[in-house]
Amino acid sequence: MKPLQHTTPAPIGPTLRQISRWHEHLRELHARLRPHFARPEAHQHALHYLQAILSDIPRKNGWQIAEHARQARPYGMQRLLSAAVWDQDAVRDELRALVTVSLSAPLPSQEELAGEAPFPVLVVDESGFPKRGRHSAGVGPQYCGLTGRVENCQIGVFLSYVTAAGHALIDRELYLPEDWCQDAARRQAAHIPEGVRFATKPELARSMVQRAQEAGLPIRWVVADTVYGHSPDLRLWLEEHGYAYALAVPSIEVVGVQTRTGLLLSDVASIAQQALHARDWQRLSQSLGTKGERLFDWARLPVVQAGVVDGRHWLVVRRCLDDPHELAYFLVWAPPDTPLPTMVQAIGGRWHIEEDLQACKDLGLDHYEVRSYLGWYRHITLVLLASAFLVGITVQSHLTASAPQQSAACPALIPLTTSEARHPAFPSLLASTHFSSPDLSLVLVAADPPILGWLLSSSSPRESQLTLCVEPPGLPRKSPGSLPGNSPGKLPEPFPGTIAGHFPRRSKACSRSCCTFHTKGGTR
Question: CA 477: distance to chain centroid?
Fold first, then answer.
């Protein structure tokens, strides 16, 4: 006789009660911002702005954010970005503190320091924001990575903090071209402060890394692309402050390396062609991508610095597996005896800032319709703060969730992502300004959202049952605030013929399906 086996999956978070508290966590974060706002009205508008960013409205501009906040005019939201008195740099510091706490991990042991993990890592990258006019601060013909060509756009330089627990953007700077800094009329029209002077992108990156350093962030590596690796001043500054770096450089970068036949001084492309042989390459994983390990062939040569080989300066070359002629070059400065796999892992950390920028653009990073210098910083800061809030939710959910039993009946699940955390299945929890229910964990969800599988197995047998109505995808989805006869964010009135606070079971004529959940508030 086959032995009895339990096939009921173990509870997997986040639970309904945890999800219902996300809205309160947002309010707690918003409350910490109060000292940075001169008036309570602007502080309250900031909460509406954050809630709109976390919602599923198609465009995060003044009109739609105001409509989401049930305001007849967009003037309050526009004033929040343009004229209200509040300190966006202090809010940025709160953002950095939130990310630091959310992604904090125990200090690495000596064994871990000797291993391949390079975290924590600071990653620098830029992003373009295409524009049509010429009045937005810093706009002009510049290379835009979004389109891959020179466009009329603004350029923002961003800093991401990457640890073993996760990653998020923590700082931002708007790049002002030199012609903008010398044009007094355009500066005045865009409200650019008089103290702002021209700074190159590597100089902006250095200022952001310096702010992270002054804030006491643990930093082991700094990585960036060729725009920043081509700057000897930035490399020297990082070395002076003891930060290991892995910076990409263009093929025309000239360095001196030590080869088997002696010193070779040339551009890195020629060095890779002349000095590297088949036995010098190693196949290593740079990072984990959506389709598995991102494998490349890697080789390194010691760089001659001040006439000697110090064992800290290296030229690292990456070769694509599909096209052996596609090479990338990196200048690395690391502690002595650092193995090549550790350097490769640090270089692979740069990919995370691409994910962070995409996640923020999904939240409306590039939806702003402001021209002023101040307005750009304020919108970008609030979007980064909303993204950091979601990152904190996902990291905490992953840490508190019980470890699933890996079996055929209950396979392991991947961690909760930020896009799933802000799924439009939960508008009344993350987006509503009126929803408040400390005991009742009830949400209306569309059929088969990504998180639904977790919710269906999140109840405890000792808790009482709650019926959750699920609308099939063929019907138009309605949030509680959009149901007729209800004020925004309120739960709908009971169905005819039912007791207040209860939902009916599915009948043959009913187009909805009902699922049973558990809460501590008693049977519903």
Answer: 28
Residue 71 in any domain: the answer is yes
Burial-class residue 408 by CB neighbours within 10 Å (0-12, 13-18, 19+).
exposed
Structural domain range at position 286: 226-349
Kindly report the average pLDDT of the chain as a whole number. 80
pTM: 0.79
345 and 375 assigned to the same domain: no
Amino acid in position 358: Q
| Residue 299 shares a structural domain with residue 378 | no
122/221 Cα distance (integer angstroms): 6
CA dihedral over 460, 463, 465, 468, signed as positive or negative: negative
pLDDT tens per residue, range 499-510:
444 434 444 444
* pLDDT tens per residue, range 226-254: 999 999 999 999 999 999 999 999 999 99
240 & 330 share domain: yes
| Residue 446 falls inside a structural domain | no
**Residue 98 Cα to chain centre, angstroms:** 13
Bridge-based pairing of strands 121-130 and 221-224 is parallel
DSSP 306-344: TTEEEEEEEEEEEE-SS-TT-EEEEEEE--TT--HHHHH
Question: At which residue do the structure tokens 């020629």 appear?
Answer: 270
328/391 same-domain check: no
Q: What pLDDT score was predicted for residue 423?
A: 65
Closest CA to 355 of 221, 206, 222, 166: 166
Euclidean distance between CA atoms 131 and 152, whole angstroms: 6
Sign of the dihedral defined by the CA atoms of residues 40, 42, 47, 51, in that order: positive
Count structural domains, the chain: 2
